Amino acid sequence: MIKTRVLVQASSRSWAGGVDICMGMVEGEIAVVRTIRRVLSHFTDLDVVLVAPEFDRGGELDEIVKLIDDERLSLYYGHDASPLNRMIDACSDLADSDYVIRVDGIHFCFDPQASLAMLDIAISEQLDCIKLPDDFPVHFTSEIFRIGALKAINNELTQPEDAKFLVHPKCYFSMNAQRYRVKFLTELPSYADEYLTECRHLATQIYAIPRQEVNEHRIVSGDRLGFHYELALQHLKSDMKIIDIACADGYGVNIMASHLKEVHGADLDELSVEFAKKNNSAANTDYFVEDITKLSFADESYDAVTSFETLEHVPEHECLSEIKRVLKPGGVLVLSTPQNSIGHIPVNSCHLIEYSLDELLALVNQYFIVVKVIGIKAGIIYDETDPYGTNTVLICVKPNSKD
């Protein structure tokens, strides 16, 4: 008889090194606690394991298991940089033919009905992996994996460049569908606007944080923030004068300063700009307090603009028109924003909207020529042949004409 176990993956630290949002509060309850309670209430006949990195041993997650106090819930620690190995070890007593339902600790709105529908398909068709589409709103997602398939890909992922797939094995499966039995759920759930609004309200407190912190605990293989800047540098020239808008503490400016002639940072938050000035003192950098919808810079001031995870926070047309104004003709814009096929009411309460790929291209093409679309699947993983993912990076050029 095939067995199934639910794994809730959580960590006290994000891949960038700061506090992970799964440790934030949702109506007086830690978010990951809410997720676990949802799992326990919907999967009443399944064992549940809270799976966490070794560095969390002896910390707050221990107390979470004691707080929930359910005999079906256990805790596994191990493998700081490899969620894949954590999953395998947490299921060491299961057979290769058994399955796991994997839920992210921050996904307290995950869809249990979709999880069960995928599990039924996986078992009946003996799949290695089944998941929701890459651009489905992440807060509602889960994945189903066959234990033997997890072990198989772990044996293949032996090179340093494979580390990103140890973080997100679902992407390795979907990008190697010719060798593994992989499906996307096709009968997709839909959600009423009232339910989306409810989820958004619940998430208000956990997203009411200053900015994502990047520190010495950063694990590169999962850090999307740093990866955005790596992607940008592939499309910028060393003699460029550029500005990073919504630069926060100057993390990205500091990365780019060693590669480019002159790099400025701009942010609406005065404290962030003050911090950046004090802690990033490269001679070719400068920082400004600016509103992206009404920049103080003269027309055609910059050769390039970078702005990551910003568009979804601000009035879109004011933002893009201002970026276009300060760019020189032929100048480069590199931007990123979440990709979401149901993004008109995003769960992230800091976002005004999240764009499907088609919506984003229709918007940005009004101002720029889009020369490349990168759909980041998860973390730092993307497929050159497939623009769909959880996050979109656009490489754009300002037209040479004045219109």
UniProtKB/TrEMBL annotation:
Domain Methyltransferase type: 244-335
Source species, domain of life: Bacteria
InterPro entries assigned: Methyltransf_11 (IPR013216), SAM-dependent_MTases_sf (IPR029063)
UniProt KW Transmembrane helix keyword: no
Gene Ontology terms: biological process: methylation
Pfam family, one: Methyltransf_11
A GO molecular-function annotation: S-adenosylmethionine-dependent methyltransferase activity
Keywords assigned: Methyltransferase, Transferase
Protein's name in the database: Methyltransferase type 11
The organism of origin for this protein: Shewanella halifaxensis (strain HAW-EB4)
